[in-house]
Amino acid sequence: MLRPLACLLLAALCGLPAHAAPSLKIGLNYPRTGNYKDEGLELRRGALLAVADINRSGGVLGQPLELLSANTASRAEQARDNVDRLVAQGARMVFGGATSEEAIAAGQRARELGLLYFATLSYANDVTGLNGHRYLFRESNSAWMSARVLGEYLSWHMPRRHYYYISIDDAWGRSMEDALRRATGSTDRARHGHSNLPSGLVRHEQYRQALEKAAASKADVLVLVLLGDNLQRSMRMLHNMQLHKQVQVIVPNLTKSVVQQAGPVVMEGVIGTLAWTWDLPRQDNNPIGQDFVERYIAEYQEYPGSTTASAYAIVRQWADAVQRSRSRSLNSEQLIGALEDHSYSLLKDEQQWRAFDHQNVQSIYAVRVRSRAEVMRDPYKQDYFEVIHRMAGEQAAPSLDDWQQERGDNLTLQ
Q1: What region holds the Leucine-binding protein domain (predicted)?
Q2: Average pLDDT score over residue span 180-186
């Protein structure tokens, strides 16, 4: 028996006349394998659902939308090469990625080809800061935005604590640790220690050594600036060492897939941030968001995560920009004009593609992972996150002055 989404796609194709217009292609650049493969699966699911919705409503400029995809394996050079492959297959826009290095490398190649690139799961400030350019838009929040909402919550509820940081040594890891240290007043590295893990393959003993140093520091708060498999493995080891009983664990950027794979017992009580959770549309009385959640549940018998929502929103926003552009065109310059400073509400409250840095400005939420008992009471056993604090996008995002300070002499997007 065909699943609901497959039926939608088949119906859309079968409903086309024999002389149907050729499809418009877009490219998903995502990790099908490697450290972030679980997040990659969520990206693909969100993109497919958006394509099905758009085609059910008549496509884009009267043409059906078709999703191409390429595996980055979470490697920046592969992500860059994939842009050429996707363009050679006819892609008119590329999006995706699960690391900031992927977004920066692929976005730069897209710029050279005159193509728009939309970054997902790319939290380093550099993406829309130092390395930002006119052809790159980021839907996910920046490290700065996560740090702002976490810093405010922690300063109110856990003041004057002793921190220890374990960070991945990449663009996101460095910018996230720096932003959170500033937001929490833990910039004194002599008091608030740290361990760096390599950006490539991390060995078992490297996780253990970092966690043992954290335990020896007598910190109250342990910040894990990690994602994907790195986060899952370190959390399991931390739990086995009983370290979670000594410290409050902070994971600045949480995803549903990480909690799902590591398990709610291991992740219970962890505090982090999200840009979206499956229950927000119901809380905000958002019918579009509620319909998205219901159709995702019908297709996959589980809740969608923020990663899925990001991919879905990007495809919908690109299609909307094409329809709103001055000449209803696929021309990148016209699409940039249609996107810059455009405000919209799709799966949550109002969001905006900010003109000066192409950062998506949106509400950010501090969340805590629920106890296993609470999770198991849910019908799908996936209601992982309790929202504990909210910050409006305008308050969380860096100002124009902040952004220009980071850019140096390059004060506008080129």
Answers
A1: 24-371
A2: 96
Per-residue pLDDT of 218-246, as tens digits, reads 999 999 999 989 999 999 999 999 999 99
**Beta strands 194-197; 163-168: pairing state:** parallel
